[in-house]
Design a protein that fits this description.
This protein has helices spanning 22-30, 42-55, 62-65, 83-89, 92-102, 167-170, 206-216, 221-229, 293-300, 303-308, 321-331, 339-344; strands at 5-6, 9-10, 34-37, 109-120, 157-163, 174-176, 232-234, 241-244, 250-252, 260-270. The chain is an alpha+beta fold. It has two domains: 5-280, q2cbj1_9rhob like domain (Jelly Rolls); 283-349, no CATH class. The strands form two sheets. The chain has a six-stranded mixed β-sheet. Strand 2 (9-10), helix 1 (22-30) and strand 3 form a beta-alpha-beta unit. It is globular, with a radius of gyration of 21 Å. Bound molecules: 2-oxoglutaric acid and fe (ii) ion (FE2). Fe (ii) ion (FE2) binds at residues 138, 140, 250. 2-oxoglutaric acid binds at residues 70, 119, 132, 140, 174, 250-252.
Length: 349
Amino acid sequence: MSARVLTPTPVNEPATKGVLSDAQVSSWRNAGFTLVDGVFSAGLIGELQTDALQRFPAANSAAAETINDFGSEGGFVFPSTSMAFNAVTLHPKLLAAVAQLLAVAVSDLRLTQSDLWPKYGNSTTDRTAFNNQDQRIHVDYPNHLLAHPTPWHRPEAVEAILYLSDVDDCGGATAVVAREGDDDPAYPWPIIDTPGVGELDYVNDKASAEAYLQKARPEAVALREQLYAREQYVSYRPGTLLLYRHDTWHRGTPMLPGALRMAHNLSFRRAECEWISTVHTGWAWSLYEQQKTLAKLIATASLDQRAVLGFPQPGSSYWCDQTVAAVHARYGMYGMDMTPYRSVSPSSP
Ligand SMILES: O=C(O)CCC(=O)C(=O)O
Ligand SMILES: [Fe+2]
């Protein structure tokens, strides 16, 4: 197998020493990514595939031809009526792995993105500047962060791509560039030589972006040539998880003609890092939805899962006898147990 193909490694089973192995954690912290298998059961991945296939246009359909950018346009984001989708988003093993990478407690994580989206091997040759088929090499921070990522060894967030398809059927391997030490010329500081940052226009398509940068930022050409030369390609099958960062160079590469790749993007930040935006509508916005999906999910979630959504934790100044009673009045019918909040509320006996 070519050195430029990255194959996933299995997560720890059992996870007594953490979900991720030391090598996986160290790869994420140093190289900027780790590629793993085995976080989710095959059954859960199968359910999510089934739910996703029902929502997206079939490959080769007229509707598929019009889809050429990231995301589901709000169509398949958290919270979803797909229980498999929600279960993946707040999966204890995923949360534990993310917490391990950031060296924080799970209750210190906050969800900022959960979006399942299709990418098609469309026949169109009309590659506009915004087409995502053959992406420019980039980092994701510009449209996730209000500020700039912190220095490399002080990471604040984890991004993930969960693949629901097979690279042999789809092509479209995500390309990543491993960071090689603090003096790596491919990882200069600050990270500004990428479309959309500062006065540079946002351009997605590789050929359009590099032609644009040659004029707008000629001094970045050498860096960008080096990044493309060092790409490695993710070999994925359903359930493979790429854990990466807002400051990892990467890009989407072309799909095989006629293929449909489904991938679920997830991001988590440390609780205090409010400058890392939640890219979806606030979670509470769905609470008028008639099926009461989020209300039921909150009522039955673990304390950690609730914390990841920003729900007040035991010991929070939010809790008093009145709020314990009021939240029970709102969610008690769905089985919400208020004991953890009651027992540590400041006004309890
Ligand atoms: O399609 C992929 O594999 C990566 C997509 C991506 O990096 C992006 O849209 O920001
Ligand atoms: Fe990206």
